[in-house]
User: Fold this.
Amino acid sequence: MTSRYDFRGKTALITGASSGIGRAFAFALAREGAKLLLVARSHDTLSELTAELRRDYACDADFLTADLSTSGAVDAIAAYLNASGKVVDVLVNNAGFAAYGRFEEVPLSRQRDEVLVNCMAPVALTHLVLPGMLKKSDGVILNVASTAALQPDPYMAVYGATKAFLLSFSEAVWAENRHRGVRVIAVCPGATQTGFFDVVGAQEAAVGSPMPIATVIRDAFWALDRNRSHRVVGMKNRLLANLPRLLSRQGAARLVEKILRPRQGKELATGHAIGQVPPR
Ligand SMILES: NC(=O)c1ccc[n+]([C@@H]2O[C@H](COP(=O)([O-])OP(=O)(O)OC[C@H]3O[C@@H](n4cnc5c(N)ncnc54)[C@H](OP(=O)(O)O)[C@@H]3O)[C@@H](O)[C@H]2O)c1
Assistant:
């Protein structure tokens, strides 16, 4: 699980580094010799992780607590970077969450937060760090999208739309910068072995057996090495990505509605956010 891209001495900002895929990116990039700036809301978890990375990998690691659904979060990150003189060479836009439930039953505030964390934060952070990367003609922006980006996702309508946004945004910025030394990649994992679906409280939202986190990191590095605009993780997922073309977009939406529909006898959850224990 190594990359041919030389991360040594580069400063990597990873959002959502406190758990799951973001945490795994932190270890992978520490092993590659990057300096780390870890961002999430969980202060104690980030503090412990930073200490572990410093101790076990002699990594120059630091952390910043920020709620990326709030308007001042990216400004606070910008202020920290200015004050510390750090320049971000590698940005991993990984923080994200999903709400599950019928669209009209999921509180609007939660759906707005999904858009802010999954879309607006990556846009604002990319806007913040891209000029510095272009000055050096070197940099990486790695956006963690999802296979949810590849077709509509009934009962996770906003989540799927945010990931489709992130995929489209990544591909466009990739195209603008592909000859300017900055690599932009959207990684699209399917169900992955993190706490994601336990916490969301809806196993029916996980399609297929969850893949190891290491597979996501490996595929991200694979795509990075080839300056790909995106990478759907896993052969099965790459085949399923053709569903809207094979069935029509409408046919794919109907099929996914059946797959994600709450199972019989189970009450429909109303918008559990990842990171929050659903009410029983
Ligand atoms: N697991 C899957 O099956 C799967 C599949 C496809 C794509 N993904 C995507 O992979 C990414 C990582 O998810 P994961 O599976 O690793 O789940 P996870 O373990 O729940 O991690 C989510 C991360 O996002 C952070 N986060 C959530 N809301 C935040 C906010 N308002 N401000 C700042 N940070 C926030 C969380 O940190 P705090 O709670 O400490 O803030 C946590 O570190 C997400 O973008 C997700 O959509 C996951």
